[in-house]
């Protein structure tokens, strides 16, 4: 009896060994290719070529590669929509439309001429083949994600142009396919357009509402991940149902869910991780397995067809990007990145060739023959290689330029302190810190649990440790480090103040105090003591729903807020919040303050969607009750007593908030102020109480009395 009987049979059919081999390729290909400075994507495609049926026949491109490959393709398009900076995209949608139209028209025009003149194909064959040159797939998109430039203007233009180009290409495929099925009458055209428009409206209207409803009710990370995948494949499946390719539905799903999945959230990190670690590599390996080098180089006509296809595809896309650059006076590096992203052929190209390959003409020949099929596979390989190299080079240059600008820009070291005491508010406080933090600074989040010396116990320490670990798990899911601090002190406020001073904290985020008895104040003694002991920015927050489901941010700004030391910082925080969440930030202020806000936002935060409205009398804050809906975030910019923008009407804020905004998510912000903290402020030493406030109250009373008269 043979105790060890091993015989190697190729191709491998055992699922365990198939999956192991694929994982080893995904693991070692980047390690080996990094030394050769070759993009990972090329390595995956070449690995597929080597192990496939047309290489060493180690693996067969079976149903598993088709399944995971299709998932990977949808994932690429979904991430492209999800990663898009919607504010930047809306600003550049005209450029994206122009690039998309040029990337469709130029290759088709060149392709028609060369297909008829050089390859001697008929008109319909030439049209279908030319549409292949026009289409492209964002195969190199993972590269821009890796370099952190996915929100660059040129990336948004290229991604938007991809949607336009591929939509037009897929319409051509549907029309040509319908003509050979006898469905090319006027009704077919009208019905196709109606179906696509109706489904697009359905996805754009329903998917965000379903997503917002789900995220508000279920906060489990696994459930949210599965839900998002289900929405992606529902969109893709519906698009295939009406006769289009599923990649368009996956891209639309990414666009409409963009606002619900912040760029820095744990859910986004999970989605990117699973796609880049498994599904997308599977797709790329599967593309490589299609390539048959022997047929291409062993047949003269196939090589000629492939050469024409490659030259036309590369030249057509370059001309389209060059024209877009010249029209909008863009930089050369931006043209390079747009060209790199819009050059690779894969998904729609394969769809086009398979449509033509499966159409049998009356004479028994195929509309697109074997030469075109094999030439297409070589086209995919060459364009993916060119696309990867160009995108890698351009993305690296842009990343280095941005890093150089950051080095030259004097930026205060950011340290955000999140005191944690209530387990119900941990997730909201951490998520708020994630969307306002500067992503270019590392180690800028600190979580603090203060244990009172008078009531310290082992159970209190264990409870605090659990709270800190929960906070660290949330930030780790978003790939953001969090420093955990446990402190013993005389009281909570003293512990927070001393920690803030020791760690040079720039911002403090706390939850809104809950009144426990009738004599308790609205903000509580903790907040009041913090404001007296700290001159740094303090955010007092209350969230009634997950922050990623907020649809609009309403910011009420008092007069003279622009003269406070922390003005620039809090504007940056809320513009960053709006940009990350993809929601509009609406500022309410008087005329002078609005002018400062508009100038600052236009100069530094143009990608954020903003609105500005007049709020001349801060005492009329109640007019906002008609503007703030249940899914809006109300931000009230307050001020410490005695500061430049302090207004006597701030004394009424607690009562107004309790009565009129109790059912709204809320942030009350106290900006940085100059000078030392007001440690000594008390009833016996009210140096923070400006006497001019009394005159101000009297003046306002007389003004309103005369106005009534």
TrEMBL record:
Q: Where in the cell is it found?
A: Membrane
User: Which InterPro entries does the UniProt entry name for this protein?
Assistant: Cation/H_exchanger_TM, Na+/solute_symporter_sf
- The species is Bacteroides uniformis
* The protein's name in its UniProt record: Cation:proton antiporter
GO terms under biological process: proton transmembrane transport
Membrane topology, as annotated: Multi-pass membrane protein
The terms under GO molecular function for this entry are: antiporter activity
Provide the primary localization: membrane
Question: Coiled-coil regions in this chain?
Answer: none
A single Gene Ontology CC annotation of this entry is: membrane
The family database entries (Pfam families) matched by this protein are listed as:
Na_H_Exchanger
Kindly give the PANTHER family that the UniProt entry links to this protein.
NA(+)_H(+) ANTIPORTER NHAS5, NAPA-TYPE SODIUM/HYDROGEN ANTIPORTER
Q: Where is the Cation/H+ exchanger transmembrane domain?
A: 24-393
Record's keyword terms, sorted: Antiport, Ion transport, Membrane, Transmembrane, Transmembrane helix, Transport
Membrane-spanning intervals of the chain: 16-34, 41-61, 67-84, 96-118, 124-145, 157-180, 186-208, 220-238, 244-261, 273-297, 303-325, 337-360, 372-390
């Amino acid at each position: 009896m043979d105790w060890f009987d091993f015989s190697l049979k190729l191709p491998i059919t055992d699922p365990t060994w198939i999956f192991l081999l694929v994982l080893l390729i995904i693991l070692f290909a980047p390690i080996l290719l990094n030394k050769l400075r070759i993009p990972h994507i090329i390595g995956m495609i070449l690995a597929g070529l080597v192990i496939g049926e047309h290489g060493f026949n180690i693996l067969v491109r079976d149903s598993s590669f088709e399944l995971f490959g299709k998932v990977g393709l949808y994932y690429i398009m979904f991430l492209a929509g999800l990663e898009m900076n919607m504010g930047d995209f809306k600003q550049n949608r005209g450029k994206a439309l122009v690039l998309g139209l040029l990337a469709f028209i130029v290759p088709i025009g060149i392709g028609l001429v060369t297909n008829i003149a050089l390859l001697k194909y008929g008109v319909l064959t030439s049209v279908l083949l030319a549409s292949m040159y026009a289409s492209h797939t964002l195969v190199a998109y993972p590269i821009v994600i890796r370099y952190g430039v996915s929100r660059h203007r040129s990336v948004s233009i290229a991604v938007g142009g991809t949607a336009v180009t591929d939509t037009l290409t897929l319409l051509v495929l549907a029309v040509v396919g319908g003509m050979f099925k006898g469905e090319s009458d006027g009704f077919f055209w009208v019905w196709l357009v109606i179906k696509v428009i109706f489904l697009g409206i359905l996805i754009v209207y329903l998917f965000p509402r379903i997503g917002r409803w789900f995220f508000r009710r279920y906060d489990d990370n696994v459930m949210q991940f599965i839900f998002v995948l289900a929405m992606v494949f529902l969109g893709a499946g519906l698009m295939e149902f009406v006769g289009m390719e599923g990649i368009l539905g996956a891209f639309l799903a990414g666009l409409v869910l963009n606002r619900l999945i912040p760029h820095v959230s744990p859910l986004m990190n999970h989605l990117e991780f699973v796609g880049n670690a498994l599904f997308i590599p599977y797709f790329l390996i599967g593309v490589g397995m299609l390539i048959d080098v022997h047929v291409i180089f062993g047949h003269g006509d196939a090589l000629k067809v492939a050469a024409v296809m490659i030259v036309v595809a590369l030249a057509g896309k370059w001309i389209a990007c060059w024209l877009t650059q010249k029209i909008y006076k863009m930089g050369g590096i931006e043209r390079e990145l747009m060209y790199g992203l819009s050059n690779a052929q894969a998904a729609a190209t394969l769809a086009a060739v398979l449509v033509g390959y499966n159409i049998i003409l009356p004479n028994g020949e195929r509309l697109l023959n074997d030469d075109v099929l094999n030439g297409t596979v070589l086209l995919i390989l060459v364009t993916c290689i060119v696309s990867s190299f160009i995108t890698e080079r351009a993305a690296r240059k842009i990343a280095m330029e941005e890093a150089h600008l950051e080095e030259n820009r004097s930026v205060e070291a950011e340290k955000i302190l999140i005191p944690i005491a209530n387990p119900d508010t941990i997730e909201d406080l951490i998520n708020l810190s994630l969307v306002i933090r500067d992503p270019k600074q590392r180690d800028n989040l600190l979580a603090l649990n203060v244990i009172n010396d008078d009531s310290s116990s082992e159970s209190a320490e264990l409870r605090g440790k659990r709270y800190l670990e929960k906070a660290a798990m949330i930030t780790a899911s978003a790939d953001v480090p969090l420093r955990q601090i446990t402190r013993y002190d005389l009281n909570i406020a003293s512990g927070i103040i001393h920690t803030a001073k020791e760690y040079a904290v720039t911002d403090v985020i706390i939850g809104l105090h809950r009144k426990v008895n009738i004599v308790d104040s609205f903000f509580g003694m903790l907040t009041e003591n913090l404001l007296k002991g700290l001159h740094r920015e303090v955010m007092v927050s209350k969230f009634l729903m997950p922050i990623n489901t907020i649809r609009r941010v309403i910011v009420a700004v008092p007069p003279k807020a622009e003269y406070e030391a922390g003005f620039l910082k809090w504007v940056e925080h809320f513009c960053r919040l709006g940009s990350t969440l993809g929601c509009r930030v609406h500022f309410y202020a008087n005329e002078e303050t609005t002018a400062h806000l508009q100038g600052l936002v236009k100069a530094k935060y143009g990608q954020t969607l903003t609105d500005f409205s007049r709020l001349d009398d801060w005492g009329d804050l109640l007019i906002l009750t008609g503007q703030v809906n249940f899914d809006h975030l109300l931000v009230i910019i307050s001020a410490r007593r005695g500061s430049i923008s302090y207004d006597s009407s701030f004394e009424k804020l607690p009562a107004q908030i309790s009565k009129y905004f109790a059912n709204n998510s809320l942030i009350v912000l106290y900006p940085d102020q100059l000078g030392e903290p007001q440690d000594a402020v008390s009833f016996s030493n009210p140096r923070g109480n400006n006497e001019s406030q009394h005159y101000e109250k009297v003046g306002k009373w007389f003004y309103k009395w005369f106005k009534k008269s």
